[in-house]
Design brief:
Helix content is 55%, strand content 11%. It is an alpha/beta fold. It has a 5-stranded parallel beta sheet with strand order 2-3-4-1-5. β2, α2 and β3 form a beta-alpha-beta unit.
């Protein structure tokens, strides 16, 4: 399913996040991933598109002004049909779409939400610096405790939700576990780029450690969604314990 949102920030982005929240209400077990133009990776996106979630087969994927990247725009536009028919939910947010792009999106989007132009003067508009959230998975794979802690706190400061941080961490651990259980990239089913990086990262952990980390993440997820623990507090403990 594909939702598209057209509108100036902050109203447009607020609408996109509102749709994400509504989807999370309907799919409480679904993991959330966000891509921007600076965090865009066709390999990681393709990996998510073709894989299943930890507790539910559906992901929620927010594409937040990814079209600022020409590569991202070309790739996403080439995949519109697959996004629309996917079990995953995609929310595509841009401040504006050119006429040709909008016409193509209209053929595949479940709904296009157009927000009235923001009348706030340009010089006082909120300008939130983009941040590559996948730095978190790289720091975990590298087992760089200092970077992991700093990136976690930066994401916390920027308001990244616990579900998204958890999903990124789990994605990296899952990829490394697959590496340990398969002989080559073909058998793993991973994208070659993801396979190469995960193979390198897996050498930083013992197999038993990866299994324990995976179990800890699963246990944390369930306890948090049952209301037994504070999800963000548990993530912080996890990061400090790597």
């Amino acid at each position: 399913m594909l939702h598209a949102v057209k509108g100036q920030t902050p109203e447009g982005r607020h609408k996109a996040h509102g749709i994400v929240h509504a989807l999370q209400t309907k799919r409480p077990e679904a993991e959330l991933f966000t891509f921007s133009d600076t965090s865009w990776s066709s390999d990681k996106f393709n990996e998510l598109l073709s894989s299943r979630g930890l507790f539910e087969s559906k992901y929620i994927i927010l594409l937040d002004q990814t079209f600022k990247s020409t590569d991202a725009k070309e790739y996403i536009m080439s995949q519109l049909k697959d996004l629309a028919s996917s079990d995953h939910a995609f929310v595509l947010y841009e401040e504006n779409f050119d006429a040709t792009t909008l016409k193509k999106i209209e053929k595949h989007a479940h709904k296009i939400h157009e927000i009235e132009e923001n009348k706030t003067p340009q010089n006082i508009k909120s300008k939130k610096e983009e941040f590559n959230v996948f730095k978190l998975s790289d720091a975990l794979g590298s087992r760089d405790k200092k970077s992991l802690w700093l990136i976690f706190n930066e994401m916390l400061r920027r308001g990244v939700v616990a579900e998204e941080m958890h999903g990124i961490l789990w994605w990296q651990i899952k990829s490394m576990l697959i590496i340990c259980k398969t002989k080559n990239v073909g058998e793993s089913g991973l994208n070659p780029f993801v396979y190469k990086k995960s193979l390198q990262y897996a050498s930083n952990f013992k197999k038993g450690e990866l299994n324990k980390i995976a179990n800890d993440l699963i246990d944390m997820y369930h306890k948090a969604h049952r209301g037994e623990v504070d999800f963000m507090v548990e993530l912080e403990k996890f990061v400090l314990g790597i």
